[in-house]
């Protein structure tokens, strides 16, 4: 915009037909600048809205992925828990079989001698 402000009451000495046309042209330029600035602002606001919509879409997608990850992590956790339980049961059964193999022959051998 122009550095000079619009004066709705022009001075008497500068108020001639040429001065009036010059002043009208200046006011029209200021209006054109204001319209141009408003159009730029509307365009920027529209672009911002599009970016916000894109961000919202990405946020929704990320929330869905997080939910899928959580379900998958819980499934893996349960699988690992069962795998751990199976391993513990195998170790317990192995120790029991080993004790039976060691104790039963010594008890049977101890009764005969």
From TrEMBL:
Extent of Basic and acidic residues compositional bias: 1-10
An example GO BP is: vesicle-mediated transport
* Annotated ranges, domain V-SNARE coiled-coil homology: 23-83
Which stretches are transmembrane? 87-109
Q: Which keywords describe this protein according to UniProt?
A: Coiled coil, Membrane, Transmembrane, Transmembrane helix
Q: Where is this region: Disordered?
A: 1-25
Tell me a GO cellular component. membrane
Q: Where is the composition biased (Polar residues)?
A: 13-25
Report the superkingdom from the record.
Answer: Eukaryota
**Cross-referenced InterPro entries:** Synaptobrevin-like, Synaptobrevin/VAMP, V_SNARE_CC
What name does UniProt use for this protein? Answer: V-SNARE coiled-coil homology domain-containing protein
Q: Which organism is it from?
A: Meristemomyces frigidus
